[in-house]
Design brief:
With 402 residues, the protein is α/β, with parallel strands linked by helices. The chain has 3 domains: 147 residues, 3-Layer(aba) Sandwich (Rossmann fold), CATH 3.40.50; 177 residues, Argininosuccinate synthetase, chain A, domain 2 (Alpha-Beta Complex), CATH 3.90.1260; 31 residues. It has a 5-stranded parallel β-sheet with strand order 3-2-1-4-5, sandwiched between helices. It has a 5-stranded antiparallel β-sheet with strand order 10-9-8-13-14. Helix 1 crosses helix 7, helix 8 crosses helix 9 and helix 10 packs antiparallel against helix 11. 38% of the residues are buried.
Length: 402
């Protein structure tokens, strides 16, 4: 009897041809596992494709709610954006997919797991390291690391073996999609000078074609977790879907960036993340009211470290646990509401409020009712500037030169 292998199956080109390769070249019985973290694909269609490609069986795991609650929302609370722009949608899904692969392997008695990642990508690291952390006894097979085929060759292989695929040579994009965002790679996007073609975008309208009238919405948070939309309690998955639709209609969430991959190369990445961009703006607005200056300064450093950790595939690490403990502590008073304006590709914070706000009108106002002690200013400045004054007296500064 052939050994079983669990293949993380998305229904895309890479995993479609991987089924046949794992079966014919490696002799495995392939269990095609689709982990649904929010994708615009039907279970019946994917199952039909997988079986036609040669899978021994097909499994579907719907983890959308868990993905949002335990992966997306913690990243929002952290303020995580890789290199300041990428909300980490794909990266956040990988540790959950790896966990489901391991669970399926245990159920099926499989000795190995597989994925369709290339040797150039980050996802191979995220999946491999996660599996190694959760089940070091399982073998990991990555056909595209062993199989010297480019995308055109894969398409030809699929046609030769009657493997159903949706990719064509005219539309050769590699796309990953979940509730929190879409990533689009390859094809004409590999030229960083080329503007992304219109057919790249699916979730977002062109800002030029977005409505002329702005939309305002309010997002409420409790201890850092998004809980309401326009004052109504909203299920996590419904909240993400609603924000994707509303913000996408206004052209919000398009990201075109040059990214430094973990494997050491720069790549041109195009993303759509309407909900992610909107949530991060809203969360940051409420934080600005309730965190002290020192907390905000240090948490910005932690956010960068957290984003790097997620991007680099170290979700199942003690370092992640330690960072998460700090982030969770910072969120205990992040309760409040942000008011946002969506218009022509931009999301702007136009209001924020919190019952735990450190903003004191009596101290901040320049009008009547000002309670700030003006007489303290001169003494404060003298003490604050004393080290600079003393140093300049005994160590005259040289004239600044360009």
């Amino acid at each position: 009897m052939a050994e079983k292998i669990i293949l993380a199956y998305s229904g895309g080109l890479d995993t479609a041809v991987a089924i046949r390769w794992l079966k014919e070249e490696k002799g495995y019985d392939v269990v095609a596992l689709t982990v649904d973290v929010g994708m615009d694909r039907q279970r019946e269609e994917l199952q039909s494709r997988a079986m036609a490609a040669g899978a021994a069986s097909f499994e579907w795991s719907d983890v959308q709610d868990e993905f949002v609650r335990h992966f997306v929302f913690p990243a929002v609370m952290a303020g995580a954006q890789y290199q300041g722009v990428y909300p980490l949608a794909t990266a956040l899904s990988r540790p959950l997919i790896a966990r489901e692969m391991v669970a399926a392997a245990r159920r099926e008695g499989a000795t190995a797991v597989a994925h369709g990642c290339t040797a150039k990508g980050n996802d191979q690291v995220r999946l491999d390291v996660s599996v190694q952390a959760l089940a070091p006894d399982l073998a990991i097979v990555a056909p595209l690391r062993e199989w010297a085929m480019d995308r055109e060759s894969e398409i030809d292989y699929a046609h030769e073996h009657n493997i159903p695929i949706s990719v064509t040579k005219k539309s050769p994009y590699s796309i990953d999609e979940n509730l929190y965002g879409r990533s689009i790679e390859t094809g004409p996007l590999e030229d960083p000078w080329t503007e992304p073609p219109d057919d790249v975008w699916l979730w977002t309208k062109s800002p030029a074609d977005a409505p002329d009238e702005a939309t305002y919405l309010e997002i409420g948070f409790e201890r850092g977790v998004p809980t309401t939309l326009d004052g109504k309690a909203t299920d996590p998955v419904d909240l993400i879907n609603s924000l994707n639709k509303i913000a996408g209609e206004h052209g919000v969430g398009r990201i075109d960036t040059i990214e430094d991959r973990l494997v050491g190369i720069k790549s041109r990445e195009v993303y759509e993340a309407p909900a992610g961009v909107t949530l991060l703006a809203a969360h940051g607005a409420v934080e600005s009211l309730v965190l002290s200056k020192e907390q905000r300064r240090f948490k910005a450093q932690v956010a960068q470290e957290y984003a790097d950790l997620v991007y680099n595939g170290l979700w199942y690490s003690t370092h992640h646990q330690d960072l998460q403990a700090y982030i969770q502590s910072t969120q205990r008073y992040v309760t409040g509401t942000a008011r946002l304006k969506l218009h022509k590709g931009t999301v702007t914070v136009v209001g924020r409020k919190s019952p735990r706000s450190l903003y004191d009108f009596a101290l901040a106002t320049y009008d009547k009712g000002d309670e700030f002690d003006r007489t303290a200013a001169v003494g404060f400045i003298n003490i604050w500037g004393l080290p600079v004054k003393v140093q300049s007296q005994v160590q005259p500064m040289e004239e600044f030169k360009e």
